[in-house]
Target: Acetylornithine aminotransferase
Amino acid sequence: MQVSRKTFDEVMVPNYAPSDIVPVRGLGSRLWDQQGREYLDFACGIAVTGLGHCHPALIAALHEQAGQLWHVSNVMTNEPALKLASRLVELTFADRVFFCNSGAEANEAAFKLARRHASVKYGAHKNQIISFYNAFHGRTLFTVSVGGQAKYTQGFEPLPGGITHLPFNDLAALEAAVGEQTCAVVIEPVQGEGGIMPATPEFIALARQLCDRHGALLVFDEVQSGNGRSGTLYAHEQYGVTPDVLTTAKGLGGGFPIGAMLATADAAASLAFGTHGSTYGGNALACAVGLAALEALVDPALMANVRARSAQLREGLGVLAAEHGLFTGSRGMGLLMGAPLSDPWKGRAKDIVNAAMRHGLWVLVAGPDVLRMAPPLNISEADMAEGLRRLGLACAELAQAG
Model:
């Protein structure tokens, strides 16, 4: 059966507008399309394929598990789920793990946990969730409501209530808003879709203090910033602040769909039997691949490469900014990097993405004013240099055309 980009318009719901390119093969940091053209991948399926395409350890884990057991549901448990949960508990602050299939589901579970924990422990009045403008937590009705971007909620009203949005990194606003009615403060340590904006250390520290003072849960959404992308397993480790709940997905499966909510024993106790669930959550195939990915991610050599390539990327973006003037530099953590556009180019991030694709480089936007890069964590120095060269060609093309 022959298919093309045109097939999408004929058979798919039009909620996406995918590129004309249809990738058919990937290996490491590279992709090839239907015509055999090669691209360097600085997008990783939106920070998902953190170990590159077709990593041998992930392939081996998938093949081995595929010949043993695929699915039993949570009426029973399975060995891969128990092994992955045990390893996550060993490596993080968490005492308990809930598995699901995506970041949105992990956040849905976290927000339900926060509401139920407060209701059980303090009463139904304690239900306020505090989040931040430009945050992104998923596309379910609850998660888009907690996220701070109105464009994702328009036309889906009425929305869940009890949610307060504040300016990100605003200490005074945060201190004024958190009170006895607050059940949770939800923070992305690095806002992803909101422009690759890291939280300040003071902001993260104050959130922890206020949650402790008022009996609220501190929830870190590390769906995009986690799984080694920041240069540590989870970005919050670099702030020296521990959450009560953490959500993770994307790079946890290296491309195989899996998400997880990690929690302290005290917080997790509120989701008692029957209060939440997922048919596919903890699927044996997903957890086997997730465990293989996790073991690769905690290799100190891999994290050293993230830090080295991050410095190389930041330096290269600075050079391109000076040469072409399309963006002003860079911000972010590890290999989650954003390049804010200069004033004359604001609103044109997608133009840079399209030009880069013409030169064989796949990058992303983080809103209309920020170019986003999330290359594989194991990318080589040579591939990083080649990606920057191709981005330079795209910038030169656009600058010449004005």
